[in-house]
Design a protein that fits this description.
This protein has 485 residues and is an alpha/beta fold. 57% of the residues lie in helices and 9% in strands. The protein is built from 19 helices and eight strands. It is elongated.
Length: 485
């Protein structure tokens, strides 16, 4: 008995002094809507969620349209097993299951609503005892909120769905056009503990309401989950209409816990870039609500000037921007690897310049030796996170895309180049890139490419091409199509 008492006391003490980050991880979880990241019921949604740094996803039931039932793959036990196994292997949860088909379909007219709800609950069970479902009411139009007869039908149907949900240990979160007062009134009409509100920041912002005040009035027990995003315009971190730290404090004070899903808030200048948009938004929510995961690769910034470090990080991010992974955990590791490479080169050349003062020959030998050893380490480090073609993209960005620009120009200048000649040109340009990537400055990088361009010109001359004539003809072709060299 004494041992049990001591165990309880020690457990209580541990909880009292548990780090805030650990508590936050249990209270808030962050995910994305699979239909918005173009992965609706696609197996790749779990790998994408992992790359974005999510805790899980909000899985859609599939399209509905005019059909009687959702186009739901998970209805097939074999498919369900594959999806569940993949999710588990990556540590990605299904935080909610969405019936997004009701964004377009009218609940008051969809007589298969109970079968659709049952299908959703079955899917939730198959994906790991998920307890929250999402049911938007957008397809019912705007008239139902004031049309008493239609509102009664919808409330009755939601009551039926809610009672089924409650019996199965689920809760259905509805998305409405109302504020807290309107939602509380609707919930009172529905009369089912199985129905709650799937809260949506976008609705509140668009109506000019105060999110924090509205959340408090609605109450924690009535909120199933949250779509923590706005309409597409800017990323959440740049959205002046949403005070996320204040929202977090409000939810903390309310004692609410649950899932925060990113539905929109895409930057309209790059609206199709899934990884950049959702990676940024997920990271921001993690920064506010949880501790963002520390990268595996540490940034070698100790003892370096802050402005210099920031400049180098910005330079490194140009490569991850090109890959669309900057705002993901993987991207953060790649940024640090690239930045560390720049730091390493700076250190090597600084050491060379120092030794040069007393022994120029030793300085160059030491520099060449360290460049050689570190060159292959850079590729090895990147290969832990990137595929070979992605590593090439990193190198191209670091060398101003000279390989592609030069190769395309050569092919455009001499349309009659044979395949083997094109292959030789590309091989030399990539060889030049390997040397240029280690050069100490932009000028030195371009000098490396300049030498190889000379080699290419000599090669083409020996192949019988009159380069002066080819350039003249090229100039005329470019001029004719409205361009210039």
């Amino acid at each position: 008995m004494e041992k049990i008492r001591l165990f309880i006391i020690s457990l209580f003490a541990f909880c009292m002094f548990m780090p805030d980050a650990m508590i936050a991880q249990e209270r808030y979880q962050v995910g994305v809507c699979d239909w918005m990241v173009l992965k609706r019921q696609k197996l790749g949604e779990f790998e994408l969620a992992k790359q974005l740094g999510c805790d899980g996803i909000e899985m859609d039931m599939g399209s509905l349209g005019t059909r009687e039932m959702f186009d739901n793959k998970i209805r097939d036990p074999k498919e369900a097993a594959i999806f569940k196994r993949t999710a588990d292997s990556l540590g990605i949860k299904v935080g909610a299951v969405a019936m997004s088909g009701f964004y377009a379909q009218d609940l008051s007219k969809k007589d298969t609503y109970m079968a659709l709800a049952e299908d959703c609950f079955d899917t939730m069970d198959k994906m790991g005892q998920t307890t929250v479902a999402f049911l938007p009411l957008g397809g019912s139009g705007n008239d139902w909120s004031t049309d008493k007869a239609k509102r009664t039908i919808i409330a009755k149907r939601l009551h039926d769905i809610g009672e089924m949900a409650k019996a199965r240990g689920k809760k259905v979160g509805i998305d409405t056009p109302f504020d807290a007062k309107g939602n509380l009134k609707l919930l009172k009409e529905i009369k089912s503990e199985g129905i709650g509100i799937f809260y949506k920041f976008q609705t509140i912002v668009e109506n000019g309401w105060d999110i924090c005040k509205d959340l408090k009035r609605l109450g924690a027990k009535n909120i199933c989950a949250i779509h923590a995003s706005n309409t597409d315009k800017v990323w959440l971190r740049n959205d002046s209409t949403i005070n996320m730290p204040a929202i977090k404090q409000t939810l903390d004070e309310m004692g609410w816990s649950g899932w925060l899903f990113v539905e929109r808030s895409r930057d309209v200048s790059m609206v199709r870039n899934v990884k950049m948009n959702y990676g940024n938004n997920v990271r921001y929510l993690k920064e506010i609500f949880n501790s963002y995961p520390t990268p595996d690769v540490a940034l070698d910034s100790l003892g370096r000037e802050k402005d210099y470090v920031n400049t180098i990080i910005g330079r490194a991010q140009k490569a991850t921007d090109e890959l669309g992974i900057t705002w993901t955990p993987m991207g953060q590791n790649v940024v640090n690897i690239i930045a560390n490479r720049y730091f390493k080169l700076n250190d090597i050349y600084a050491e060379r310049d120092s030794i040069k003062k007393s022994d120029k020959k030793l300085a160059e030998a030491t520099c060449d030796s360290k460049l050689y050893r570190s060159h292959f380490g850079f590729d090895a480090d990147l290969s832990k996170y990137l595929k070979p073609n992605e590593i090439e993209t990193v190198k191209d960005v670091m060398t101003y895309n000279v390989v592609k620009v030069t190769y395309d120009a050569q092919c455009d200048m001499i349309p009659t180049l044979k395949n083997e000649e094109k292959a030789q040109i590309l091989t030399w340009l990539k060889e030049a890139r390997e040397l240029a990537i280690d050069a100490e400055s932009s000028k030195k990088k371009h000098e490396v490419f300049g030498k190889y361009k000379g080699r290419i010109n000599n090669y083409l001359s020996k192949q019988g091409y009159d380069l002066n004539k080819e350039r003249e003809d090229w100039y005329e072709r470019v001029k004719a199509r409205g361009g210039k060299l």
